[in-house]
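Project outcomes to date are best conveyed with an example. Our students and postdoctoral researchers have been running inverse folding experiments weekly, and each run begins with a structure described purely in tokens. The record below, which covers 507 residues, was selected by the lab manager from last quarter's runs and is presented without edits.
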């Protein structure tokens, strides 16, 4: 599987090729009418690579329900998260603002109260609104930001609750397991650990609990418009679940840059994170990861079937995405928190039945900062009227129209965990390592596939994603692209000024 679908655009060009237009036009004739108040079903996962689905090149993972949804959706082939770690990225999805504006600049930090989410911006009391699953944006299990119903699957964030919140309260998933006769394994905290939950049969997993919650909500609110977010922890670590052995290892293909060694020209921060693991180690991990994606797919299938059963499908906008990706051994790295494609690229599907009935692939590069403006426009609001939004609406593309392609921007701010960790790199002193552990990064990707990542204190990187989708050859220090680098540095500086980003870079 390639780590990046080939860019097909020229800088400043229009998106939608002629080959894309024909099936859209032919299969859009029997569309349902747009409802006065469309429903929104927003499905998202945690740490799911774009390359986990057939439309992005993966025919091995058993995710038929997601693949079917993709066959009926507008598929953004080059979609990215704004910051490759949960809380900041989730904040961008929910508010349409960059982390330095919505307030959740690193994990376990709450959104600013004034950072409004879709129900608050929609301001339509006829809508039933719900958020089910992982939140990770502060006060994890308590209703907030305009959601009338709110129930989390996570109990690991109590120490981050606001002072006035009761730390003895537990999530709906906790009470679900209690009702099934299970007893918390983390006795002192009175919680079920993620590892414990991952060892349960599918019937008692978080994905199945979420399907039950979502289906119940749909039944209760089938006669009124609704906005429902369903967020899965899976396929986040621990990479363990009831379908660990569902996929044959021999059927799986990891990225071509698996265990590609980092060099002295790569950021010291990345070299500190580097791990020397065997290819078999990552294949076995990937096998379990694929099983978690299957668990999510089963749950999504149940929700979509209930939507059909209730006759709600033609009235419902469906969004599917993830908060960030997963390195899975690419460049000798695990997890996320880096500016490589495997961590940054995410799936993004948007299905609007009254605009399209077949798959439409969009090469337009985008980030999850644009999802909320898009939803507002699709719901009949003018996203340009909301001053907090820093993203731009993709609604014209969803409707089959054209938008001038633009650069996209991503950021990395160091987390407390990274700041406090004792990193070691050969030839780097402890004092220097402390500096690199606190490095910030800013990335720009152009419509024609150039990717520049600048750091305030660490090494920089330049890749030509068209020729080098695996990001093997860092061109920054070759001396051959100085004029391009200069231009892209100016682009980043202008973006920082527009968005209020005060990171000082070597421009």
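After processing, the design step wrote out the following sequence:
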């Amino acid at each position: 599987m390639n780590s990046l679908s080939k860019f097909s655009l020229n800088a400043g060009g229009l998106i939608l090729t002629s080959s894309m237009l024909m099936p859209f036009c032919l299969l859009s004739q029997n569309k349902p009418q747009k409802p006065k108040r469309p429903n929104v079903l927003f499905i998202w996962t945690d740490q799911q690579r774009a390359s986990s689905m057939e439309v992005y090149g993966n025919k091995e993972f058993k995710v038929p329900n997601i693949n079917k949804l993709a066959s009926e959706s507008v598929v953004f082939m080059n979609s990215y998260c704004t910051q490759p770690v949960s809380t900041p990225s989730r904040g961008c999805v929910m508010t349409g603002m960059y982390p330095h504006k919505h307030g959740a600049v690193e994990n376990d930090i709450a959104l600013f109260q004034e950072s409004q989410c879709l129900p608050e911006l929609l301001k339509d009391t006829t809508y039933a609104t719900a958020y089910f699953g992982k939140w990770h944006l502060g006060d994890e299990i308590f209703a907030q930001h305009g959601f009338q119903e709110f129930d989390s699957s996570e109990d690991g964030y109590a120490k981050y609750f606001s002072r006035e919140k009761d730390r003895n309260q537990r999530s709906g998933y906790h009470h679900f397991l209690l009702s099934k006769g299970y007893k918390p394994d983390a006795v002192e905290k009175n919680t079920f650990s993620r590892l414990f939950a991952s060892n349960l049969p599918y019937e008692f997993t978080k994905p199945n609990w979420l399907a039950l919650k979502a289906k119940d909500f749909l039944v209760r609110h089938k006669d009124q418009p609704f906005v429902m977010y369903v967020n899965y922890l899976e396929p986040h670590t621990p990479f363990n679940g009831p379908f660990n052995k569902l996929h044959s290892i021999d059927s799986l293909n990891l990225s071509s840059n698996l265990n590609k060694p980092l060099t002295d020209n790569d950021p010291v921060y990345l070299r500190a994170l580097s791990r020397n693991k065997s290819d078999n180690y990552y294949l076995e991990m990937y096998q379990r990861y694929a099983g978690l994606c299957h668990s999510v797919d089963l749950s999504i299938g149940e929700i979509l079937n209930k939507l059909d059963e209730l006759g709600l499908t033609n009235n419902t906008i469906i969004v599917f995405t993830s908060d960030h990706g997963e390195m899975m051994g690419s460049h000798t790295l695990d997890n996320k928190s880096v500016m490589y494609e495997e961590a940054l690229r995410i799936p993004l599907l948007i299905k609007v039945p009254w605009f399209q009935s077949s798959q439409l692939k969009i090469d337009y590069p985008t980030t999850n900062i644009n999802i909320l403006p898009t939803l507002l426009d699709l719901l009949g609001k003018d996203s340009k009227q909301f001053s907090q939004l820093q993203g731009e609406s993709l609604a014209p593309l969803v409707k089959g129209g054209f938008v001038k392609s633009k650069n996209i921007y991503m950021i990395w701010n160091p987390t407390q965990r990274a700041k406090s960790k004792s990193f070691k790199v050969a030839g780097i002193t402890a004092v220097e390592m402390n500096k690199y552990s606190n490095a910030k990064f800013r990335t720009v990707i152009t419509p024609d596939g150039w990717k520049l990542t600048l750091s305030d204190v660490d090494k920089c990187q330049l890749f030509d994603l068209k020729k080098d989708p695996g990001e093997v050859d860092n061109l920054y220090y070759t001396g051959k692209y100085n004029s391009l680098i200069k231009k892209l540095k100016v682009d980043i500086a202008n973006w920082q000024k527009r968005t209020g980003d005060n990171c000082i870079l070597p421009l």
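The domain at 39-400 is CATH 3.40.720.10 (Alkaline Phosphatase, subunit A). The chain is about 30% helix and 10% strand. The training component of this project remains on track.
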